[in-house]
């Protein structure tokens, strides 16, 4: 993919984010783009960095680590946006700036154990299955408060916010209901003293609705890079 193509797509994406933020009375500067480079070669990640995208998202730990090990450009922020299995925790801790997919107390404890052993603090988001889809990972909404309280009490985890995925649909009402559900959950937690400022929600097919409902991070792949090669 030519850098010029990425620049044009990025300009369009930023324009759409700005318009969505304006509709919601928000400052578009409060929305960060995580460029999802999963399934793309390292050259695409380098093009993203050259275009000014300093947050790169990957789904698979092994694929991400290979890119990190080959990375020679100035530092970027690597995000793990896919499901994290406990047997991959040792490989993930300390390599990713932010893990978006904390979805259970057992995973929180595993992350804490490894982070403590390495003397570092791992930043995380709690993934919530707002829509209750059986095929998706994520903590059920009714169990989120217990997970958040547990994660917040662990000294080597820094809980930054919440993450969700809307059902794959063109129905804007369904998208908005999912994103509003995450935002409202965050507000309820804040009322209990558990302030979680980051809301990671919205992908290529629904990011404008997510921005209108309060997203602080949108995870965009196809909108920036076209279809994946893997």
Q: Main sheet, how many strands, which sense, barrel? A: 8 strands, parallel
Number of domains: 1
Helix content: 40-55%
Structural class: alpha/beta
Can you list the strand order of the major beta sheet?
7-6-5-4-3-2-1-8
Termini separation comes to 15 Å
The named CATH superfamily:
Alanine racemase
Structural shape = globular
The CATH top-level class label: Alpha Beta
The residue ranges in which pLDDT falls below 50 over 5 or more consecutive positions are: none
Account of the protein in words:
With 230 residues, the protein is an alpha/beta fold. It has one domain (3-224): Alanine racemase (TIM Barrel). It contains 9 helices and 8 strands. It has an 8-stranded parallel sheet with strand order 7-6-5-4-3-2-1-8. Strand 5, helix 6 (144-153) and strand 6 form a beta-alpha-beta unit. The two termini are 15 Å apart.
SSE topology sketch:
Elements: H1 3-23, E1 32-36, H2 42-50, E2 55-58, H3 61-70, E3 77-80, H4 89-92, E4 98-102, H5 105-118, E5 122-127, H6 144-153, E6 157-163, H7 172-191, E7 198-200, H8 207-212, E8 217-220, H9 222-225
Parallel strand pairs: 1-2, 1-8, 2-3, 3-4, 4-5, 5-6, 6-7
Describe the structure in brief.
By secondary structure, the chain is α/β, with parallel strands linked by helices. It contains 9 helices and 8 strands. 43% of the residues lie in helices and 17% in strands.
């Amino acid at each position: 993919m030519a850098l010029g193509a990425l620049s044009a797509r990025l300009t369009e994406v930023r324009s759409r984010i700005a318009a969505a933020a304006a509709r919601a009375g928000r400052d578009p500067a409060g929305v960060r783009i995580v460029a999802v480079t999963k399934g793309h070669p390292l050259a695409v990640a380098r093009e993203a960095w050259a275009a000014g995208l300093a947050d790169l998202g990957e789904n698979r730990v092994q694929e991400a680590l290979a890119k990190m090990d080959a990375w020679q450009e100035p530092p970027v922020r690597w995000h793990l946006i896919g499901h994290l299995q406990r047997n991959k925790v040792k490989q993930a801790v300390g390599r990713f700036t932010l893990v978006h997919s904390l979805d259970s107390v057992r995973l929180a404890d595993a992350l804490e154990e490894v982070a403590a052993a390495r003397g570092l603090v791992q930043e995380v988001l709690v993934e919530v299955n707002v829509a209750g889809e059986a095929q998706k990972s994520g903590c059920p909404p009714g169990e989120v408060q217990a997970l958040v309280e547990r994660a917040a009490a662990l000294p080597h985890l820094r809980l930054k916010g919440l993450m969700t995925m809307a059902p794959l649909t063109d129905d804007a009402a369904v998208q908005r209901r999912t994103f509003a559900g995450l935002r409202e959950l965050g507000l309820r937690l804040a009322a209990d003293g558990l302030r979680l400022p980051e809301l990671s929600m919205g992908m290529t097919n629904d990011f404008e609705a997510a921005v209108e409902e309060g997203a602080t991070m949108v995870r965009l792949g196809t909108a920036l890079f076209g279809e994946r090669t893997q």
